[in-house]
Amino acid sequence: MVAAVKPVGSQISDEEWAVRVDLAAAYRLVDMYGWSDMIGTHISARVPGPEDHFLLNPYGMMFDEITASCLIKVDLDGNAIDDSDYKVNPAGFTIHSAVHMANHDLACVMHTHTAAGTSVASQKDGMLPLNQHALLALHEVAYHDYEGPALDHDERVRIVEDLGEKKILILRNHGLLTVGRTIGEAFVWMYRAERACRMQLAFQQSGAEWYPISEEVQQITMDRARAAVGANGHRPSGKLEWPALLRKLDKVDTSYKS
Prior knowledge:
Layout: H1 14-32, E1 42-46, E2 54-56, E3 72-74, H2 90-102, E4 108-112, H3 115-121, H4 132-138, E5 141-144, H5 155-163, E6 168-171, E7 175-180, H6 183-206, H7 215-229, H8 241-250
């Protein structure tokens, strides 16, 4: 991978700069995978240190424009710590600050409005146990009812309550949200959720009869998936995938590191 060089004279700590580079990479990868929504949706990352600060995208920039240095640092009241010609999305602040206020162990929150994710979020039964891909995600899925655009800060309490200890929150009639202890973990949970939603829509559109998976096998699959992605499992979420994703991105464009 091409090394990321912090700007000369920067007041940003090395720890924060590393987070900025990974977060900028996440924005570029979301765009690369076709999950972006022009200037809509958002990904945030907690800034290392004692202050409750986190980073969000400049509202008005496309995801393929995001760089480490352009990300805006805000506090839990929505005040920008950095100078910028841009503001942050107020709905984005509401959603992301909810999680960052409630759980300091979660470093990243990712939110998308993809066609597949929003379509499944609009279905009464949500994500269905149709196949292995769904079962690899379902053990981490929770739901939050739609309350309109997320501009009411009172909704933050309900977002946190509905998320609980899960990693995937299906925002009904709205989209998908994932969280992680690292940026890579949040990205991989979004990949799994998005993949399961795309497969569900593809199956539903086929009109074919479902070959059901027994409840016993569903539970076995989810238990094994939970163990595999745990700290002692063979595939902790994001640990193996994130370095590979960065290598993939670096082959295309390294400008996110600036």
